[in-house]
Amino acid sequence: MQSRRKFLQMSLGGLTLPALWQCQALAGPAQHTGEKTAVILVWLRGGCSHLDTFDPKPESGSEYAGPFRPIETVVPGMRLTELLPRLARTADRFSLLRSVHHTGGGHPAGSLQVLAGDPAAQDKLTPELPDFMSIAHFLRADPARKIPNYVGVNPIVNYDSFTIAGPTYLGPAYEAFAVRGDPNQPQFEVPNIGLKDASQGERLRERVGLRQGLDALRRDLDLTGTMSAVDAFEAQAIGLLTNAEARGAFDIRQEPDAVRDRYGRNAWGQQCLMARRLVEVGVEIITTTFDGPLCGRVANWDDHAVNHHVFDALQFRAPVFDQAVSALVEDLYARGLDRRVLVVVTGEFGRTPRISHVASSGGGVASAAAGTVQPGRDHWPNANTMLFAGGGIRTGQVIGATDRRGEEAVERRVGPGDFLATIYRHLGIDAANVAIPNFGGRPVPILPTGEPIAELGAVT
C-alpha cells in the first residue's frame, strides 16, 4: 500500500492526492468560454535593463546611457538597441508596453507583484497569494486531460531562498508540471511522461489495479471528503505515464534540425521550442525562465556591478535571447497559432537609468576580477518594458512611454493589476468577478485591482 501511494504521488510531480482533489472540487466549472487560448510567459529572472534593450535613451547623458546604439525596426518609430537585430526585423509581430511600474524594489516583492498582484512593497519568504498561472490552471482544470495544462519549462519557483511563485492556498495540485534541465543536451528527458515500452504500461496497470486494493487509501481520503475522486485521479496519473502523445510533445528531438537551429542550439532556444510544441498539443499555461549559464557569472539578469559588468553581460546573452524569442514569435505566426497564443516577455522590474560603478565580487563570464570597478544597473520598479506577441492583439505598437532618462513611466502608466487583468482577459477569465476560498474558507478575489489594457485587446 505504501508503494502504491508513493507511485501516485510521484506520477504527478509529487502532488498529494487529497490536495489535488480537494482543490478540483472547489474549482467548479471552468471560468472561460470559446477557443482554448494559451499563454507563454518568458521570465527574465533578475530584471532586464529596459534602457539597453527595448527603451533606449541615447540622449540621456553619459551617467545614464549605455554604449549600445538604437536601431530602427520594421515598425516606423519603434526603436530597439543594436543588441536585438532579429527582434527589430520581427517588430510588426509584437507590441511593447514601456510604462509598467510598481513598488516592489526587491526581487521577491517585484516578482510577487507582477506574477500574483500582491501589492506589498516588502519582500516575503513565501507568497501569500497564488500566481496567475496557478489560478488559470485551477479555473481551467479538466481531469480528462491527458497532458498537464500548466507546464514550467525551467519553471518560475525561487529567487535565492525566496519563493516567488506558487499556488499557495490552491494547493500543490496547481503547481506547474516542472521540466528541468537543459533540453539542448542529447541525454535530456522529461521523467514520468509516456513510458517507452507498451508492456511497461500494461504491467503498471496491473500493479496499480485501478480500482482494487485501495481500501486503506480510501480511508485516508475519507478524512478530506475526496474519496469519490480516487478513480479519476488514478486514471489520470496512469494516463500521463502511458500516453505516447504526451511523451512526444516534450520530445524536441522530433523537430527537424533546421527548426532547432532556428531557435538556437542552447537551453533558451530549445526551451522556447518546447513551449511551442506544448501549445500545439493543447497546453494552455507555459512559463519558461531565462537564467543559468547563458546569463553570465551569477546566472541571472541581476546586473549590479558587484555581479556583472552590465554591458558585457547584456552583450553576452543578447544574441541567444534575440534568436530564441524572435524564433518563437515567428513560428507561432507561421503555424497559425498567433491568435490563440499570447507570448509575454518580462522580468520583475527594469534597471536603474543611472549607471553605478562598484567593485566586482568575483571574476567570470561578464564580470571582471574581484575588486575591479565595473559598471552596473540596480533594481528599478519605477519603469519596465514588457513585450507582447500573438494573442490576436494589434501588434507593431509602442504603448506608453518613460521620461527622457527612462526613470519614470510618464505616459499610459500601468501596474501589475492591469498586466494581470490583460492576461486573464486573453484566457477568458472574468477576473473582476472571480473569488477563490483561501485557507480559512474566505473568498479572495483573484484580482482586487486592475483593468485590462485596452490597446492589447484582441483585434476582431
Please render the helix and strand layout as text:
Layout: H1 2-10, H2 17-27, E1 38-43, E2 70-72, E3 79-81, H3 85-89, E4 94-100, H4 107-116, H5 132-139, E5 150-153, E6 158-159, E7 162-163, E8 177-179, H6 198-208, H7 215-222, H8 230-242, H9 244-249, H10 257-263, H11 267-280, E9 285-289, H12 310-334, E10 341-346, E11 350-351, E12 356-359, E13 373-376, E14 379-380, E15 384-390, E16 398-399, E17 401-402, E18 409-411, H13 416-426, E19 435-437, E20 443-445
Parallel strand pairs: 1-9, 1-10, 4-16, 5-8, 5-9
Antiparallel strand pairs: 2-3, 4-15, 6-7, 10-15, 11-14, 12-13, 17-18, 19-20
Helix pairs in contact: 4-13, 11-12
Report on the structure:
- The chain has 460 residues and is of the alpha/beta class.
- The chain has one domain (31-194, 243-456): Alkaline Phosphatase, subunit A (3-Layer(aba) Sandwich).
- The chain is 30% helix and 16% strand.
- It is built from 13 helices and 20 strands.
- It has helices at residues 2-10, 17-27, 85-89, 107-116, 132-139, 198-208, 215-222, 230-242, 244-249, 257-263, 267-280, 310-334, 416-426; strands spanning 38-43, 70-72, 79-81, 94-100, 150-153, 158-159, 162-163, 177-179, 285-289, 341-346, 350-351, 356-359, 373-376, 379-380, 384-390, 398-399, 401-402, 409-411, 435-437, 443-445.
- The strands form seven sheets. Strands 8-5-9-1-10-15-4-16 form an eight-stranded mixed β-sheet, sandwiched between helices. It has a two-stranded antiparallel ribbon with strand order 2-3.
- The longest helix is centred in the last third of the chain and has 25 residues, at 310-334.
- 51% of the residues are buried.
